[in-house]
Design goal:
With about 280 residues, the chain is mainly alpha-helical. It is built from eleven helices and four strands. InterPro entries: TPR-like_helical_dom_sf, TPR_rpt.
């Protein structure tokens, strides 16, 4: 395809801008245009840096504690236990800094988690930028999910549960530098499907456990609240089921599944109430 440069339009105030190139033709980015784009990007970066909030101040106790020795043990990082338990302050005396200790231990845990990921996946020699994701994991997840759906339609619930469990593992094992949004989407979908399989199999406790996880991961998704409500109804925990369904309706008031589930649980509550009244009369 030929590369063309748009003709220069008339200069001066009030001049009409040049017409865009016809479809199928590309505009050549000249050095002048490239410089203008780079200058605009630098200006945007400077504006973002100027508008960014300042970092929170670090307390003296945290500064003193961070300066305490941190030893590398094998390929792992851990906090010196004596320093972590009672770090000294600026005067050299022991000070109470449990917050600093917890923060540093949390950082060490994150570092060790990243080390474990890099050891499990040696192909990730250096963590790539967050926007770069290798497609094979998403492809494997999609295949496991679709195969699970097929087994569910065939009534092979055990096989479907196994495939959805594989999809859950794939989503949960995403490297920490990849998109958390994608991991949440995948996890909530696979767990919701597995919850349905457990429900149809009659294992309502496991169905409820998966539904609770879906609500925790993606609270605004009505499907998680619906799965939770249905599992609680099956366990005869009607008031809890009603609360779960009402919470889902707060996020999606027009959801028909939740409306029908609310009607179902209200009918059961009224029926149980009438049954108790009849029993008390005997």
């Amino acid at each position: 395809m030929a590369t063309t440069q748009p003709p220069a339009g008339p200069a001066g105030p009030g001049a009409r801008p040049p017409r865009p190139p016809p479809p199928g033709q590309r505009v050549q980015i000249t050095p002048e245009i490239a410089q203008q784009m780079a200058a605009k990007m630098r200006q945007q970066q400077q504006q973002q840096q100027m508008s960014a909030p300042p970092p929170p101040p670090i307390s003296p106790a945290e500064v003193d504690f961070v300066e305490q020795p941190v030893r590398a043990k094998g390929s792992r990082v851990h906090v010196d236990s004596s320093a972590a338990s009672n770090p000294p302050n600026a005067s050299g005396k022991a000070s109470d800094a449990p917050v600093a200790s917890e923060k540093l231990q949390s950082v060490c845990n994150d570092i060790n988690y990243l080390i474990n990921k890099l050891e499990q996946h040696p192909e990730y020699a250096v963590p790539p930028p967050p926007t770069i994701m290798k497609p094979h994991r998403s492809q494997q997840f999609t295949k496991s999910k679709e195969d699970g759906n097929a087994k569910f339609k065939e009534g092979k619930l055990d096989d479907a549960i196994q495939l959805f469990s594989a999809a859950v593992d794939l989503a949960a094992d995403r490297p920490p530098w990849e998109s958390h949004v994608l991991a949440r989407e995948e996890l909530s979908l696979a767990l919701s499907n597995r919850s349905l399989c457990f429900h149809n199999k009659g294992d309502f406790e496991k169905s409820l456990s998966d539904a609770n996880a879906v609500v925790e991961i993606k609270k605004a998704w009505s499907k998680g609240h619906f799965r939770k409500g249905k599992a609680l109804i099956a366990l005869d925990k009607l008031q809890e089921a009603r609360d779960a369904i009402l919470l889902g309706l707060d996020f999606e008031p027009s959801n028909d599944d939740l409306k029908n589930a609310l009607t179902e649980v209200d009918t059961k509550i009224i029926s149980n109430h009438h049954a108790k009244q009849q029993h008390n009369k005997l």
